[in-house]
Amino acid sequence: MPPPGGGRAGPGPLRSRGSRRQPGPPPPPRAASPRPASLAARPPAGPAGSRSALALVTLLSFASRFHRLPEPPHVCWDETHFGKMGSYYINRTFFFDVHPPLGKMLIGLAGYLSGYDGTFPFQKPGDRYEQHNYMGMRGFCAFLGSCLVPFAYLTVLELSKSLPAALLTACILIFDTGCITLSQYILLDPILMFFLMGAVLSMVKCNACADRPFSASWWFWLSLTGVNLAGAMGVKFVGLFVVLLVGLNTIYDLWDLLGNLSLSLVMFGKHLLARVLCLILLPLALYTAMFAVHFTVLNKSGPGDGFFSSAFQSQLIGNNLHNVSVPEHLAYGSVVTMKNLRMAGGYLHSHWHLYPEGVGARQQQVTAYLHKDLNNLWIIKKHDSDTADLSDPSSPVEFVRHGDIIRLEHKETSRNLHSHQHEAPLTRKHFQVTGYGINGTGDSNDFWRIEVVGRKPGKLIKVLRSQVRLTHVATGCLLGSSGKTLPKWGWEQVEVTCTPYLKDTPNSLWNFEDHINPKLPNISLDVLKPSFAEILLESHMVMIRGNSGLKPKDNEVTSKPWHWPINYQGLRFSGVNETDYRVYLLGNPVVWWLNLFTIGLYLLTAISTAVALKRGVQLSSELKELSRVVLHGGGQIALGWFLHYLPFFMMGRVLYFHHYFPAMLFSSMLTGITWDTLLKFFAGFLSPSTAARRVYGGGILALVLLIMYSFYLFHPLSYGMIGPMASDPSSPMAGLRWMDSWEF
């Protein structure tokens, strides 16, 4: 009989899955095949023993993360970013970041609850905290980083049913210098990894309840998986990788259920709906709610305004567009500012300075400027006649319409927006954009066709809301901002070009922000405010463009994905010379190289087994059991490592060493499962059983002691060093510089 609710019978995640079961009497019992004593069925560690071990590893994890937490008492590495963003939440000041808001919101909340007042500037690494209370934010990150060890312990214990495997995994993470360092500072990484490991643990626990579907524990772990998925996604977009892992696990489970002929379609539909509810709708609702809180809290104008649209900026208290009234539709003679829609595209701008010799035509510079300025003002005029003076009440108002050919005259210099077939200053194959003419008199290269995206010819053009493109009539190119910064002769403003590639991108789209025309009635910008759905979509477009456009800062140590598993190069968190208090992010070499060796061993086992089965080779019962335990027990974990590592090879953005740490969690769990199984396998050939247990226990103990000794050698990397650099032979760390690329 199937279990109640139509679920699958089986011991949990290590059960044989995917077979189609036929109703009928059970098959006759088979004779047990001989197998090594080490792999023979043995009672798992009792609940009391596993709970005591859990308490021990949790205590060690917290002790290692909170040891010397206040030091150094100054800003370290990216604390300058995320500590500052926590301050912005406390002060309710709007800012922009390439990551979703949950991690920064939690940092700000931790600071607020611990008495931090949000006044520390976080200007640069090395700034001393002085009297400011930074320990609440560091302590919060250290707390979440400490939880990774018990999460990994429980995950491995559930998958392998082996207490030594779980203890070995916990030991690896407790004594890894890299995990300790990354947990001790005001960073997003420990928050991300907390939700990531929470999702994996919840998924594994839910799988273990497969024989009790729709029970209270099954619903709890399934719902908690969804909550953790929302948390991981809400901290960084790389949370998508664990979403993919859970998604693949769910698809596999549903496929297995579909193959169960004893399960009715109604019951399968219930399983499907439960997963849609808990793993799709619940995470989406929580993720959306995070942004609702984010935009509600950050209601004051701040440094992030310029990254967002004018319509969004009008909702921020203190912004020059907040609570103002402007004419709604554009008319000839209006004085306007135009904002480029690319992230940090700036306002269309000109000034008296000319392009230097050898840079296109020596005419007036036209740039994009990120700040409000009188040189951002332009007058809209007809292309074939001058527009009447705004102060003349007798002149009729004539609105600008989609498809009109216009001229833009720079208000300050009275020169027209102009383009020609000279090459742009920085962007090859784009045309130069200049200011040309005298008192509005120029030539036909000053004519532009104004078009609104998605509108029909003849329609009016709205301030803030209409997205427009300006097509140069003579050459057919589109006015746009390349995003490239001009040299000092261009005052390090952003290059404006006319691109012949006729494609609507944020670079070539603009909106009108300021609008001055005394002949037109004003309307409050509140009627133009975007909906929450529009704000949510805009924020994600800005984050995605920002992420893809990240560039390394000056003298910053970046890395390549192939560097990471071999622990090739670390990151300086604090200090650059022998007089500084130095902290260096680098993994425990024994741990990382053991993990790398294990991954290779795992892949070899998987490939060899697959080839042998394909060729029809009969494996011994021992090898079958070894492959079953390693592949089934570590399959989900190995998949997690691949999903959290391989995508980085395809990313075009700048990458850093710390991006590998989520994958490192999976490789550490895989190491615990694989070595526990291998030691059991080899010990199983020994007789009597006491000798097998000694070899097995001695092997686990040797690995633990080796890891602890390596931690003893390298712990100053995490807890701070003062004195000569390791490159100096007199340094106490000189003998530990095993790779020339290590710079501690």
Automatic annotation (TrEMBL):
It catalyses: a di-trans,poly-cis-dolichyl beta-D-mannosyl phosphate + L-threonyl-[protein] = 3-O-(alpha-D-mannosyl)-L-threonyl-[protein] + a di-trans,poly-cis-dolichyl phosphate + H(+); a di-trans,poly-cis-dolichyl beta-D-mannosyl phosphate + L-seryl-[protein] = 3-O-(alpha-D-mannosyl)-L-seryl-[protein] + a di-trans,poly-cis-dolichyl phosphate + H(+). PROSITE patterns: MIR. It holds the Pfam family MIR. Residues 1-47 are annotated as: Disordered. Residues 32-47 have a biased composition (Low complexity). It is a multi-pass membrane protein. One of its GO terms (cellular component) is endoplasmic reticulum membrane. The chain crosses the membrane at residues 94-115, 135-156, 163-185, 220-252, 272-293, 590-613, 633-656, 663-683, 695-714. It comes from the Eukaryota. Keywords: Endoplasmic reticulum, Glycosyltransferase, Membrane, Repeat, Transferase, Transmembrane, Transmembrane helix. Its EC number is 2.4.1.109. Pathway: Protein modification; protein glycosylation. It is found in: Endoplasmic reticulum membrane. Belongs to the glycosyltransferase 39 family. PANTHER family: DOLICHYL-PHOSPHATE-MANNOSE--PROTEIN MANNOSYLTRANSFERASE, PROTEIN O-MANNOSYL-TRANSFERASE 2. This is Protein O-mannosyl-transferase 2. It comes from Aythya fuligula. The lineage of its organism: Eukaryota, Metazoa, Chordata, Craniata, Vertebrata. The gene is POMT2.
